[in-house]
Amino acid sequence: MSFEEIKLLLVERFGDEVIVGEETSGLQPALIIDPEHIDKVCLELRDNPKTYFEFLSCLSGVDYGTESNRFGVVYHLASIPYQTQLTLKISKTNNRDANDLPAFPSITKVYLSADWHEREAFDMIGIFFEGHPDLRRILLPDDWEGYPLRKDYKTAEYYKGIKID
Amino acid sequence: MTEPSNPLKGMKYDIALEQYNKKIADAATQDMVLNMGPQHPSTHGVLRLELITDGEIVKEVIPHIGYLHRCFEKHAESLTYQQTIPFTDRMDYLASMNNSHVWAMGVERMMGIDKDISKRVEYIRVLVCELNRIGSHLIAIGTYGIDIGAFTPFLWCFRDREHIMGMLEWASGSRMLYNYIWIGGLFYDLPVGFEERCRDFVEYFKPKMVELNRLLTDNQIFISRTANVGVLPMDVAINYGVSGPMLRGSGLKWDLRRIDGYSVYPELDFDIPVGKGEMGTVGDCWDRYKVRVDEIEQSLKIVEQCLDRLQNELKRTPDFDPRAKLPRKIIPKAQDYYVRGEGAKGELGFYFVADGKSEIPIRVKSRGPSFTNLSVLPAIAKGVMIADLIAIVGSIDFVLGEVDR
User: How far is A134 from chain B (nearest CA, A)?
Assistant: First the structure.
């Protein structure tokens, strides 16, 4: 199925408001999805016989910079029977408050591979995934402060009173 | 120094951690909590597996990773595309060539110069990648043997891998971390005589594989330890994002060298081995092992075809310059791009976000195949014996450098 057909399919299934935009200028076209619907969209794309996007290649959390204060998650899906690829994007603004992380629905129920990738996005960028079964830090220690891949992150000087050289 | 305060204590961001701590505390009273690693030899690096065991039975496995985290993505956000290549080498350090190949391929496509790369450069890239893949699979096979208790194959595999290391060192100047494939070209052309030496190696190595198969693949003790152990059904594998020899071991013919047909792979003739369940069930440890053995043979076939081309129509000429197409400044236009390629362990992907103004990407995410392959471990290691867990961990063939990045 082509990109346009997938778009039509999603609009037919969920209505107009589910797709909030698209990016077609780059090498890989991307659909921008309403963050609240991402889990339903993924489930539909995985199970629909016309698409069968059953392989989640990559899930990346992105901090789009301190000017826009926008955080996003990018999903790269692959269809094994049709050998096609699709990029989905969701994003929202956030004030970078440590007590109010940007929150998106988790898609671990659709793709189990999202489990560790979402933990990594939580660990590195500080994106909270609602409904994730076990959202702990994955690469950094549990008591690490801050989110290192955020654009406003200041490199830690001490860890538990030990100076980091 | 005062104890650093945790501002998130008791918040919803901490609930998962509290639940985990409670689970371990509860398990410690009823069952036994056993730590395997981070220095356990069969974890092939610094991986810590927390096992909740009931006698010899593993009730649950909780992997703890991150001991080898070297901030690859953070580095990539502060260095230019070319400067990051040595860091990609350190991800899957057993197959560095494959990593830098995928990285270079992604940046070249973003720059729109991927069609300008000369055939000779592409063939050399594929040649060194496949040699490196053989080396990586030899380690997988050898260390798997030693996990199960067979010492000899380990020494044989390392002996043969040493020849590959020697050749790649000759080409690039380094034994493991090559920095050989550059964006738009190569570090150097192959040294004079490389093709002949490589052909000698192929001739030497083919009978060694027969010996290895007689020693390990058809060994009854080895089969008893691996057949019907750690069965990974295909649907579970796909849902967990498992790729590479592990996914093919589960019976799915999925190889990005064929699917995407990148570089010169469409011009080469090779098969994609899949697990057939010859000794037990499809997707068991033996199948995963066998796929790697068969892939070595296919890689040898690719190496021979590359050598044929490199010695005939793509012969070394005095004016051939592998750095001729190297871009002076690498500033891709504003876009984001996900590139994927078949690394030695599976689908290796890089996701770039470029702003079109600077030489430095604003975000790079690396999708290491070992990372997602390892995440399936808790699912397939439920209810097995501790000794079988060793067999399962070994059959996944992960490299911690790529899991933690």
Answer: 5
